[in-house]
Amino acid sequence: MRILSTISLAVLAAAAPVELVERQFGGGGGGSTSNELTQGSCKEVVFIFARGSGEPGNIGMIIGPPLISALKALVPNTAVQGVPYSAGIAGNLQRGGTDQASINTATQIFNQANTKCPDSIIIAGGYSQGAALMHRTIEKLPDNVKNKIAAVVTFGDTQNEEDKGTIPNFPPEKVKIFCNENDGVCGASLSVNAGHMSYSTSMKPAAQFLADGVNKAKQGGGASSGSSSGSSSDGSSGSPTGGPSGLGGLGGISGGGGLGGLSGSGGLSGLSGGLGGLRGGGLGGLMSGGRGGLGGLRGGS
């Protein structure tokens, strides 16, 4: 079987103490769940966000809260809705970077935004596997829903290489992909490192891109359809565009949750490539692996 995506490091932050995550990754101080569309009234803008693998709630902790805080400072009248998909590690191993059940869940959220709040402008975002979920969902939305999406931002995008920096069947000027130069997940080297979790400086530019999309939509320039062949990617990303990524040497994955070997207050230690020692209740033994992909998965937690 040809494997097109890699495992998200969001599970690391999900298992770490909240204070450590906020200290290291700028956790924004918000909660990990937001249901302002499904449980609230309609607002001018609906922001749909998909968290990374293993993150809590439906917006997670690494990207969701700080991005939402920055966005609401620019566009206060925004209803935030997290996608309540499973965000399991195994989803990354599916063709396209996530599973069909998750795509169905995200599709329902977009459709609900369109039917419940027909006058609202839709914007969207995703991190790691959540970024893949945005790709796979938006590309297949009906045109009447897709045309209402004014802007999309993704971070640590597992499908950046596979889709060549685009969301298929969606206008490239409405998409901005943030990929750190040392983020192996969206750089296709399959090196799992701190770069995949270090996007605090991207929050304000991402929020501004979303706000600009909203303003264009208000002026009548945000609703367009058609396929895209390019993307508006982050100028600081430095991530290459090329052929499909792969994932090799995978074995012995079962269960999820738990974390071992995470220490320090200034950053992550002991992270350099490769993911190992995953089974049952724990994730541990992150050792160097580099570009060779994902290998040496065996017991231990």
Per-chain topology:
Elements: H1 10-15, H2 18-25, E1 45-50, H3 64-74, E2 78-82, H4 100-116, E3 121-127, H5 129-138, H6 143-146, E4 149-155, E5 175-178, H7 184-187, H8 203-218, E6 232-233, E7 278-279, E8 282-283
Parallel strand pairs: 1-2, 1-3, 3-4, 4-5, 5-6
Antiparallel strand pairs: 7-8
Helix pairs in contact: 3-8, 4-5
Structure description:
It is found in: Secreted. InterPro entries: AB_hydrolase_fold, Cutinase/axe, CUTINASE_1, Cutinase_monf. The chain is an alpha/beta fold and about 300 residues long. It has a single domain, classed as Rossmann fold (3-Layer(aba) Sandwich), CATH 3.40.50.1820. About 25% of the residues lie in helices and about 10% in strands. The strands form two sheets. A six-stranded parallel β-sheet has the order 2-1-3-4-5-6, sandwiched between helices. A two-stranded antiparallel ribbon has the order 7-8. Helix 3 links the parallel strand 1 and strand 2. The radius of gyration is 18 Å and the shape is globular.
